[in-house]
Amino acid sequence: MRTMQSQSTDLYSEYVRDWKEKGGKVLGYACVATPVEIIEAAGVLPYRIKAFGHPDTELGDAYLARFNCRFCRSCLQLGLEGSYDFLDGLVETNGCDHLRGMFENWQHVKKYDFFHYLKVPHFLREDSLEYFTDELALMRDAVAGFAGTEISDDALREAIDTYDEVNAKLKRLYALREQTPPAVSGTEVMQVLCTGSSMLGRDFSDLLDEVLEEKAKARVTDYKARLMIMGSATDEVDLIADIESTGALIAADALCFGSRSFWTRGGESGDPLALLAERYLGHLFCPRMFNDYERRIEYVLDTARRAGVDGAIITYNKFCDLHGVESVSQRMDLERAGIPVLVLEKDYGSKADTGRVKTRVQAFLERLGK
Amino acid sequence: MYYAGIDVGSLTAQAVVINSKGIHAFKSMGVKPNPVQSAKAVVDMLISEERVSWNDVRFCVSTGYGREQVQVEGLSQDNMSEISCHGMGAAFLVPEARTVIDIGGQDAKVIRIGPGGELIDFVMNDKCAAGTGRFLEVQARTLGLSLDELGTVSQGAERVLELSSRCSIFCETEVLHYLQRGHSKADIAAGVNRAMAERVAALVRRVGLEKEVTMSGGVAKNAAVRAELERMLNVRLIKYNADSQIVGALGAALMARRMGGS
Q: Which one of A265, B10, B39, B63 is CB 3.0 to 4.6 Å from B70, fit for a cystine?
């Protein structure tokens, strides 16, 4: 865990460096709608693009506007300034327009040999599942061509099994955080997830065994309140640490750098691509999906009840229109369910915001009587 | 037996000492380079000018942006957020208050409180100077007025000039533009005060207004902003019978009394 803490915010981690030195290829993706199983089945490392609160955006601002989400501008900045030169290509999705702007400008400048646009439907219907299955077939062929290999159904099934194993272990990690008293903090969980998002599933699975064993008997006792956090894409380990430094414990989350990346990945299809379509599109609890708010809020409320939280923090990056709009209904529904809410709009990566964030969280804890 | 509260904000620092009867003494000053220096200086002022014996202070709570460092240095025994402290201080001064508008140097907060001053809900401005004391400071400087004058000068305005921008920097450009076109400082100042009130009123609407309403922080001393807010929100802002800038420190002292066992 200590090694992970020191490496969890390294973009080019020791693990990725070793992989590259052995001649391995790396594909960057950003959105949880990307089925990493296809990339892993081709023997390529799926790498989730992160910015870890990188504060500079000058290059990103030259291609995107200042009113684009700063997470996307920070990632673009890192891509353009060379921090991501270890990537061999990008897989874009239409997660949101800010993200698309990031990917397409990045590719415009860097001109990777491999760039694939995976189109993810905005509705969950039978015909959209069929469409997404076709899209996944296109992605499989593109990735196979890039890797110079074939991606067989058996290889896909093996990768799906690997991620089933990873997801089951992550659920055990979450159970350790949800228990009273918890065995891990919210900061530690985000460090684990960020580390894993730069690894092959099979290696992450082994690492999770070590983490679970190390943490099985650990206890976190010095906290005042159990909170849940949800909202925009954020990989800011420091943000969670700042929140927890006020005496809060992030006992649960509905973040896409959190439970939404793995919690529900079920499906019944026998065909591996149709199964992946079900696993991803069928459980994409993101406000970019239309007509699906009821399932999303149920997911949030189930999580909050299961973890027995005292309150919830809805956080979103300035200019994140999807989560900004969603936060209004979410706040009302959570409060209706008796869960007090703090809405925390923040500027991604801004260290100047630290004091203001901590003031608001501390006041929220005081409001909860903690 | 005394209880003390120290509030170190972005522009000013206050210290308040209370006894069983109420406010015993208080001091306010501009901040020093770091919060600990500010806290020490304002406490020293209190000791030397108000003849308060700090040894008789049983418990002290710090609040404001420097609250943690002040506690780490041993000047206070605990710390609370300024949001809770402003609620507590306002409820002490105006027991019927349920909404507190607090506008400090770098932030603006609207706080909903219960009958005992307990925090029910709050909203704080986003990371931007619009709607804070800094906004008024920037515009006053451009007009060549002091902060106090900005409030008084505008009372002689013949009309209120429209400032369309939401941003402090763009607003400064608009103020310059009006000056160059020969508009009176009074008319421009009235526009500045109205623009400020509009931003705060939007914040009030976000958290919801419940009567009675009070206002604390340095901007509460600007009569023109108060009047604009009263008009926009259709509510009377109840005045404190104390300096509006000490409400946070007073709340901290009241918290100290609660925590220190009295």
A: B39
